[in-house]
Automatic annotation (TrEMBL), chain A:
GO biological process: intracellular protein transmembrane transport; protein targeting; protein transport by the Sec complex
Subunit architecture: Forms a complex with SecF. Part of the essential Sec protein translocation apparatus which comprises SecA, SecYEG and auxiliary proteins SecDF-YajC and YidC.
Annotated GO MF terms: protein-transporting ATPase activity
Domain SecDF P1 head subdomain positions: 247-353
Gene name, Swiss-Prot/TrEMBL: secD
Family membership: Belongs to the SecD/SecF family. SecD subfamily.
Cell membrane keyword on record: yes
Protein name as it appears in the record: Protein translocase subunit SecD
Length: 536, 318
């Protein structure tokens, strides 16, 4: 156990040096690192949100909201399909629970209706079932003419999957515009999206930007009666009352079907109104949108139309002249930031469904820094206490264990930096715990050496036996902790996962440093001093 | 050496103490379970849902009564305000709001706009009802699966009596640690699960080290009565057990004192767990083997599973 081949010594020293080299960049500011030559390692430890501050937001697709919206469109599609010539008479068309129901008047034409409507069952290509086609809806037609569309489970799941996918794209565009450094946006489970924005110190604004559906639509204002009248009586068919974003809100009576929507936009930018000097948002339509816009404005000169964002009227200007250039302007009561946010939202596009925040954790940069300071202080004091204690308890061997412990800590930080694993506050706790427990391996060995020595062995033979006999014990003991760490990693998110990572890395480096590094130190010492009895 | 915590060649009779340690531990465990079901854990928002807001006030010390009164006007249901860390730091807990996630968000927005000018928001955590339910489930599954996997590992490495002894001991440690959370009404959160898993790891670590020596001695002293053999094994390992506990506790106490308020509960649970884990590996795990009839008849050696023991080659010195 005390003989080391040269290449082994070289390898052990190399590993420890690698740990040192990998750890080093953490001691310099990013500024200094940038000025150093390129061949030097520059990666620093990734700090978790709890240490550098930032926002963690977990969104969930609002399925019910999506289902209701989707069923509403389906009602419209059914209406249109049945009204096509030759018309099929129907009654009682509407949303029923999780489906749509309609009754065909003429029982003779049920088959014809079924044929026409079956296209609306809407085959989707499923990514989950290997490109197989699944229908979005099942279509049930009863003898007496009752037709029922119901969501299929796979169809809905498939829709939710693509909604999540699209939403991630939209969110990424929005967050990128916000200038957040290295945001992490990813799918979580079936219907959730995780947004992590490190260093983001205004989670409110981030939330406003990410969570808004941002569905922009243009509607004609119905001037046949006032909105108040409509609210008191009943809005005419095909119209709807929407409030404006003003405080207090002003109701508008609008045609329900939008003229144009945000999908036709190609660009949106903030600029300033030349007369009032207030911030406004300029937008531009694509070719087809521009054409539609031109026709609509031509036909409706002198009438007001409304620009609506997520069912709230932003502004309702009167069309003064036909707008043929395909660009327009939204002026509301914006300040620069809100105008900018609107432009970002319009450029990034609308979310395909409503998202709800199901979990939010945001940490201010002040707390993060405090935690780093506290963690650093605690680690230093903890390590110092252990180091002193080891020297007091084991003398020269304690010093060797301490050198091994230092190498161990270097290796932990080196591994964390190299793997770019995230260091969190519980992660620091994991390191401190490892410092305490790392000594265990050495203690086991030293106690064993003491015993063997007491049993009458010579110094070298006792050291040899101490190392070889303690190995099994150390492995058994560490594997149980490793099992706990692995399971913790599976369970955990964010901070807890950071704890599991440092604990697991700590176990590997501990076993390594006890079995190679400290053994090497002891071997070198034995070779140097050739002790006849043990100072242990 | 300058420091010797445990004298050499101790001969403490630990096994004799089992007639006290067993009933005592059983009593504490039963009391913990009873408290768990009557008083209950103080679940944090991770498992209960709700909102936690940590703020630093502009004036120091913070006027907690005023903050409580201001929060009372916001109509948020049950709100707790307590000082947290420094004198100007305050922790606000708001109960889960009726009306699901959007209502939670609305509650936070209310607090924000009402306090924006007076405080710095250091931390805001909102956990909705669905997520908290899932976290509770995941936490339970994690603890149980850790126990099962480790049970199999020890079963594979040792004989079944050791596996049973280790798991019963560890479950005892978990129950007593949960009991601590109940008695002190410490907030039970996701990090508490992390602490419990660490305690499982540590407690087993300790138990395995003692068992390892017992297994070795079983082969070395084939005629020795089991209680005597267990006493001998524990005494041989006593110095190591104490040393490791002390160094680990030193590190954890530093963390408890200097590591900041955020992880204080987490550290406290671990300190307690280390103490319990050390106690139980000596006073529960080892004597349990007598109950499990590891060596029937006391003197006769049981057939060893030699094929599995490759690293320790019996008694003869190498």
């Amino acid at each position: 156990m005390l003989y080391f081949a040269r290449w082994k010594i070289a390898l052990i020293v190399l590993v420890v040096l690698a740990g040192l080299v990998s750890t080093l960049p953490n001691f310099f500011s990013t500024e200094t690192l940038r000025q150093m030559p390129d061949w030097l390692p520059k990666r620093q430890i990734v700090l978790g949100l709890d240490l550098q501050g930032g926002a963690y937001l977990l969104y969930e697709v609002d399925k019910q909201d999506y289902i209701q919206k989707r069923l509403k469109t389906l009602v419209g599609d059914i209406r249109q399909t049945l009204r096509e010539e030759p018309r099929i008479g129907y009654t009682g068309l509407g949303v029923q629970g999780q489906g749509v129901q309609v009754r065909i008047r003429d029982v003779q034409r049920i088959d014809e209706a079924r044929n026409r409507l079956s296209e609306l069952a809407n085959p989707l290509v499923s990514s989950l079932f290997g490109g197989q086609q699944v229908n979005e809806f099942t279509l049930d037609v009863s003898e007496d003419g009752l037709v029922r569309f119901t969501f299929t489970e796979e169809g809905l799941a498939q829709r939710v999957r693509s909604i999540v996918q699209q939403s991630i794209e939209v969110i990424r565009r929005r967050v990128d515009e916000l200038g957040t450094t290295e945001p992490n946006i990813q799918r979580q489970g079936e219907d959730r999206i995780l947004v992590e924005a490190p260093g983001e110190n205004d989670p409110q604004r981030l939330k406003a930007l990410v969570g808004q559906t941002a569905q922009l639509t243009f509607h004609m204002v119905d001037v046949s009666m006032s909105a108040e009248q409509a609210l008191q009586t009943r809005p005419p068919a095909g119209t709807v009352v929407m409030d404006s974003i003003d405080e207090p809100p002003i109701p508008y009576l609008l045609e329900e079907a939008p003229l144009l929507s945000g999908e036709d936009l190609v660009d949106a930018q903030v600029s300033f109104d030349q007369r009032t000097n207030e911030p406004v948002v300029n937008f531009r339509f694509n070719t087809s949108g521009a054409r539609k816009f031109a026709i609509v404005t031509q036909q409706n000169v002198g009438r007001p139309f409304a620009i609506v964002l997520d069912s709230e009227v932003i502004s309702a200007p009167v069309i003064r002249e036909p707008i043929t250039g395909g660009s327009g302007q939204i002026s509301g009561s914006f300040d620069v930031e809100s105008a900018n946010d609107l432009a970002v939202l319009l450029r990034a596009g609308a979310l395909p469904a409503k998202l709800t925040v199901v979990e939010e954790r945001s940490i201010g940069p002040g707390l993060g820094q405090d935690s780093i300071d506290a963690g650093r202080l605690a680690s230093l004091i903890g390590a110092a206490a252990v180091v002193i204690f080891m020297v007091l308890a084991y003398g020269r061997f304690g010093v060797m264990a301490d050198i091994a412990l230092t190498a161990n800590i270097l290796l932990i930080f080196g591994a964390l930096t190299f793997l770019q694993a995230t260091l969190t506050l519980p992660g620091i706790a994991g390191i401190v715990l490892t410092i305490g427990m790392a000594v265990d391996a050495n203690v086991l060995i030293f106690e064993r050496i003491r015993e063997e020595s007491r049993a009458g062995r010579s110094a070298i033979s006792a050291i040899d036996a101490g190392y070889s006999r303690a190995l099994g014990t150390i492995l058994d003991a560490n594997i149980t902790t490793l099992i706990a760490a692995v399971i913790l990693f599976q369970l955990g998110s964010g901070p807890i996962r950071g704890f599991a990572v440092t604990l697991a890395i700590g176990i590997f480096t501990t076993v390594f440093s006890a079995f190679t590094f400290s053994r090497l130190l002891v071997a070198l010492w034995v070779r140097w001093r050739r002790p006849s009895h043990l100072p242990i | 050496m300058l420091l010797k915590l445990v004298p050499e060649n101790t001969h403490y009779r630990f096994m004799w103490l089992r007639r006290y340690s067993f009933p005592l531990s059983a009593l504490i465990a039963v009391a913990s379970i009873v408290l768990f079901f009557t008083v209950g854990l103080n679940f944090g928002i991770d498992f209960k849902g709700g909102t936690v807001i940590e703020m630093k006030t502009n004036e120091s010390p913070a006027d907690i009564a005023q903050i409580r009164a201001d929060l009372g006007t916001l109509d948020l249901g049950d709100v707790q305000v307590q000082s947290f860390g420094g004198p100007d730091e305050v922790l606000v807990r708001i109960q889960q709001q009726d009306g699901g996630e959007p209502a939670q968000q609305a509650a936070v927005a209310k607090v924000r706009s009402s306090f924006e000018n007076r405080v710095e928001f250091r931390r805001i955590e909102v956990v909705g009802p669905r997520v908290s339910g899932e976290l509770a489930q995941a936490g339970t599954i994690a603890v149980i699966s850790a126990l099962v996997v480790i049970l199999f590992y020890i079963w594979f490495r040792f004989e079944w009596q050791f596996a049973i002894g280790a798991i019963v001991t560890t479950i005892n440690d978990i129950i007593v640690t949960v009991g601590l959370f109940v008695v002190l009404q410490l907030e039970f959160s996701l990090s508490s699960i992390a602490a419990i898993l660490t305690i499982i790891g540590y407690s087993l670590n300790d138990t395995v080290v003692v068992y390892d020596r017992i297994r070795e001695n079983l082969r070395r002293y084939k005629k020795m009565a089991l209680p005597e053999l267990l006493d001998r094994s524990i005494n041989e390992m006593l110095s190591r057990t104490v040393m490791t506990s002390v160094t680990t506790l030193l590190a954890l106490i530093a963390l408890y004192i200097f590591g900041g308020e955020v992880i204080r509960t987490f550290t406290l649970a671990m300190i307690f767990g280390i103490v319990i884990g050390t106690y139980s590996s000596i006073f529960l795990a080892a004597p349990m083997l007598i109950f499990l009839n590891l060596r029937p008849g006391g003197g006769q050696a049981k057939a060893d599973k030699e094929d599995k023991e490759e690293d320790d080659s019996a008694a003869a010195p190498a």
